């Protein structure tokens, strides 16, 4: 058992939930609304000093009754200790958590990936967009258990969408606006981009 | 016209026989009138002062794969970098949920395809921790050999391609020659050059064949000469030093905050190497040094990786010295397939063979995370099992994905040409970034 758990329970009280041991690793469950407090305490307390965020990921079980878990793997580079912190979310409710990007910049892309693959959104994330799938991807969240292995759309539909994809969608309006290019766009194209119609199919009606 | 005049015309286009320019610089008025160039510079039209949007990739040779960077430039200075990844997304983690543990190993080849053997080892170690399997002493040493061979080829590819990005062609040829020798050894061992799939849960695909050990020993004896040559050509080369020193520097605190790992972390002065600090495969019993940089710039990353090649070579030589005899696979018929001859002649062996192929190896309920020091950084494998033969979740902690996320931080404020050097220094491989 990792001694950080008892120390954390003494300081943070009810924020620390149950503790599980698996293959020699300590897994501690944390209340979702207190997540950032717990991680801040683990990072900044001198005796704990979990200064390195190894990974953020999520797990959904095959058993539909089990909640979806978001997993934070922490490491103290000085002490060599590791701790796995988990947060449980009800997949039927709102999948929302506080972002830990204010604590670790390295969480930026990791949280984007969890959002992209599981649909968990992170409050106060500076740039919460899809990362591995394209921004207009409409089939859902691929690593969820209700997502079929071949995708939701038929292969014919996927091909049709790829062939008729709107080339304007290669840049977001955010990217275009940083340059002089935004002013030079044709008026109708700029209007469509402003309305957020990127990646829609021109002939879909 | 004398002969000399003709030569001058041939040699320097745009200059007439008397050495005067025949073309007017772009933007000057009075096109075609020789001599107008000097006067035209004064009333040159003003250039727009807005920022410029540049798109690099996904088909750009210097992005090392299908990486796309949208860059905002002020003049030639990078103001903002917006990386776009995912062009090579293959859904490996999703596929893994539909496969037995041994069937996942071929997928690991294809993530970081520049060091396939090390990925195989990382996955096998995690699966074995999950199942509580203790592998044999010979297997441990063979896996160390597999990991360090991968380190050599991955760093050689990095060195060669980065040198090309910065204008040095010759080290590329030397580096790829060495990589070719390791590829021949991989082919000898596994039959495949790239997609090795060398491990199995509880052992290896095969023992090394006859002639492998002397061939690898010959490699370890001759490889340092190439490293010396690369060292002599690059380390004090004025162009190389000028383009890499002070470029893309990260402090130790920034490197930790961005979760960097591997040579990127160590170049910033953080002495953390999983092989030394969280040892696996008995790495603590090998004698090797962990190189650490001081400035965290592209040059230090180069020095760290070059030294890691030497240390990998040292580890390879030690592993060959100590390679023990004995079995490679664990003696557990529920995990390791019986030899074909026994499966065809022995009823019990045939049942085990059938059950393994049809049902797979079941893992107990639980989860395991194993991080190994891959050439690019910490490759983590996180497996969650619900007691069946297929994992509920197979997560790859991709080192180059996380290292790449620090690219905007490193590149902003530098020149566009430095962005290429910084991007090269991250050592990305898109198969792993996108998975």
Provide a descriptive summary of the structure in words.
Chain A is 28% helix and 21% strand. Chain A is an alpha/beta fold and 205 residues long. The relative contact order of chain A is 0.10. Mean pLDDT of chain A is 83; it is low at 199-205. Residues 1-11 and 25-40 of chain B have low confidence and may be disordered. Chain B has 435 residues and is mainly α. Chain B has helices spanning 3-11, 36-40, 92-96, 101-109, 116-131, 137-165, 170-190, 212-234, 238-244, 252-257, 263-267, 274-277, 298-322, 340-345, 347-359, 399-404, 407-411, 416-426, 430-434; strands spanning 52-56, 68-74, 77-84, 199-200, 203-204, 366-374, 377-385, 393-397. The termini of chain B are far apart. In chain B, the strands form three sheets. A three-stranded antiparallel sheet of chain B has the order 1-2-3. Chain B has a three-stranded antiparallel sheet with strand order 6-7-8. A two-stranded antiparallel ribbon of chain B has the order 4-5. The chains are: A alpha/beta (205), B mainly alpha (435).
Give the distance, in angstroms, between the N- and C-terminal Cα atoms of chain A. 60 Å
Structural class of chain B: mainly alpha
β-strand amount of chain A: 15-25%
Mean pLDDT of chain A: 83
Secondary-structure topology with pairs:
The complex is a heterodimer of chains A (205) and B (435).
Chain A: H1 3-12, E1 16-22, E2 25-30, H2 35-44, E3 52-59, E4 68-75, E5 82-89, E6 96-98, H3 107-118, E7 121-123, H4 155-163, H5 173-177, H6 181-184, H7 187-194
Parallel strand pairs in A: 2-5, 6-7
Antiparallel strand pairs in A: 1-2, 3-4, 4-5
Chain B: H1 3-11, H2 36-40, E1 52-56, E2 68-74, E3 77-84, H3 92-96, H4 101-109, H5 116-131, H6 137-165, H7 170-190, E4 199-200, E5 203-204, H8 212-234, H9 238-244, H10 252-257, H11 263-267, H12 274-277, H13 298-322, H14 340-345, H15 347-359, E6 366-374, E7 377-385, E8 393-397, H16 399-404, H17 407-411, H18 416-426, H19 430-434
